[in-house]
Amino acid sequence: MLDVLTDNFDQFASGFWVTVRIVGISLAIALAVGTTVAALRVAPSPWLQRLGGVYVETFRNIPLLVLLFISYAGLRRAGVDVGPWVAGTASLGLYTAAYVAEALRSGVFAVSRGQREAATALGFSQNETMRIVVLPQAFRTVIPPLASIVIAMIKNSAIVGASLLALPDILKEARIVVSRTFQTDEAFFWAAVCYLLLTVSATILFRALEKRYAIHR
């Protein structure tokens, strides 16, 4: 079994780093969009709340694989030249952003009302209160659920590689190894080990962040 890894180490390593890139870019999109949607969800305007709600319900209830088909094959058929990297990372990022938004929304409500009132009394606008007072504390509160979301994103990245986009991630490279060596069990075992390394590393990182930024009550 070990010979499958040693003989194809370059391919597994290449797929590993492609997966890291997919997750890194998608996570940046998810955090940026998710934070914006969370702000809409807690905005004083009912219309903004509804807009944020529509985003969350839409992206949480459409399977990721369907989004990948729409963002790549659908847009290209409509005449929009979208590459596999853009389609893959944007789809995964926007899909995950809905979950990030809901996690942050729960974190916002965990911040005491008195702190918002104090910020208002000090002359902060609604946007300044959210940006300076509420969101930093909300992020600290939601580190554990964000960890679960990131781990799910790492596993969902396999769908990006397995879809029509065919990005050369861990799963794609494992399938290439299988087609060449016919050692199916061994190749997918090492692919599973690669994903396990990523998820365990993410777990350790978020536990360290949780410990560092823990809110002592």
Task: Tell me about this structure.
With 217 residues, the chain is mainly α. The protein has a domain at 18-167: MetI-like (MetI-like fold). Helix content is 83%, strand content 0%. The protein contains ten helices and no strands. The protein has helices spanning 2-7, 9-41, 46-60, 64-77, 84-110, 113-121, 126-141, 143-162, 170-181, 184-212. Helix 6 runs antiparallel to helix 7 (126-141) and helix 8 packs antiparallel against helix 10 (184-212). The longest helix has 33 residues, at 9-41. The radius of gyration is 20 Å and the shape is flat.
User: Shape from CA axes?
Assistant: flat
Q: Decide which structural class fits the backbone.
A: mainly alpha
How many individual helices? 10
Strand residues, percent: under 5%
Could you tell me the number of beta strands?
Answer: 0
In the CATH hierarchy, the architecture of the domain at 18-167 is Orthogonal Bundle
Can you tell me the CATH topology of the domain at 18-167?
MetI-like fold
| N→C terminal distance | 50 Å
Which radius of gyration do the C-alpha atoms yield? Answer: 20 Å
Biggest β-sheet: count, sense, barrel? Answer: none
Classified by CATH, the class of the domain at 18-167 is Mainly Alpha
The sequence of SSEs as H and E is HHHHHHHHHH
What is the element layout, followed by pairings?
Elements: H1 2-7, H2 9-41, H3 46-60, H4 64-77, H5 84-110, H6 113-121, H7 126-141, H8 143-162, H9 170-181, H10 184-212
